[in-house]
Amino acid sequence: MSLCRAIAASEQVEILVLDEEGRAEARAALPDSAVNIHDLPFGDIWLRDTGPLFCVDDRGALCAAAFRFNGWGGKYMFEHDSDVAAGIARLADCPLAAQGLVLEGGALEFDGAGTFITTRECLLNENRNPGLEQVDVENILRASLGAERVIWLERGLRNDHTDGHADTLARFIEPGRVLCMEPRDEDDPNEDVLREIRSTLEEAEDAEGRRLQVVTVPSPGRVVDGEGSLLPASYLNFYVANSTVIVPVYGCSTDDEAVGRVGECFGGRGVQGLSARAILSGGGAFHCITCQEPVVGAAGSR
Questions:
Q1: Distance between the two ends of the chain, CA-based, in angstroms?
Q2: How confident is the model over 55-103, as pLDDT tens digits?
Q3: Which backbone phi and psi does 247 adopt, to 5 degrees?
Q4: What is the distance between the alpha carbons of residues 19 and 41, in angstroms, rounded to a whole number?
């Protein structure tokens, strides 16, 4: 609930619960926070992937897109997860456009001005969209979300069950500027991947034809669970709220530097590091369990 409290200090928070017990628990943990609690069936907590992608249409109205969800390539299928996007759209009272592409929200990073980042390991994976070529996916993203330029990274972090979600690899600061991680330790398990990502981004152009300005934060390096298994830890899975950025930390020597570097990139907002070790045990962090809804016609989100 520390994440909810941190977000609620900046914007309205909408929380999904399964039943009255969950509602009571949420209300007890957040007695003075700006939260609305909704009963909506769901299977797991990864709302970034099961929820809708909110958009603003050409008329300036809120709308949403729901892509097919198949449990990250058939790995984890839970009852109700495929219905979450439609349920949230109903709560938001906005139209929902169903899309045929298998796509989780965390697989995309975008700058709000037509430039998208994704990975071949995820969107071109046979466990999601067999038979589709890169150009086919680009055409679908253009038609459904307004993607004018798609930057393709090759692969994601080791032991990432999402098959390379972009929201752990590269995040836009603003159009034309992007964050990625750099390895600091000789035993960083993702050294080759991170260097490859940086090289790809440095050579990429955005939808305006500009060469991207690449900014780096340190990698957390080798982070393992209690049994010694490698976890896909990333400082880039942060949540950008209206007045603060909430950065996942893991008890690593690079935590403070990473939080400070992210804060420098989002001047005008505060920055807060919160432990994400418990969430990471399931494979993700703060961006993975949230889903922003724009407030149309006003600054901010909820």
A1: 17
A2: 988 888 999 999 999 999 999 999 999 999 999 999 999 999 999 999 9
A3: -105, 130
A4: 8
Return the CA Rg of the chain.
18
| Helix/strand/coil percentages in the chain, nearest 5 | 30, 25, 45
Mean pLDDT, range 166-195, rounded to an integer: 97
Average model confidence (pLDDT) for the chain? Answer: 95
Cα distances (angstroms) measured from residue 277 to each of 28, 155, 157? 23, 23, 16
Respond yes or no: is residue 288 known to be catalytic.
Answer: yes
Instruction: Please choose, from the candidates 295, 291, 246, 296, the residue with its C-alpha nearest in 3D space to the C-alpha of residue 271.
Output: 246
The structural domains of the chain, ordered by start, are: 103-289 (3.75.10.10)
pTM, to two decimals? 0.95
Name the active-site residue from 63, 94, 288, 291: 288
* Inter-residue contact 222 to 250 (CB < 8 Å): no
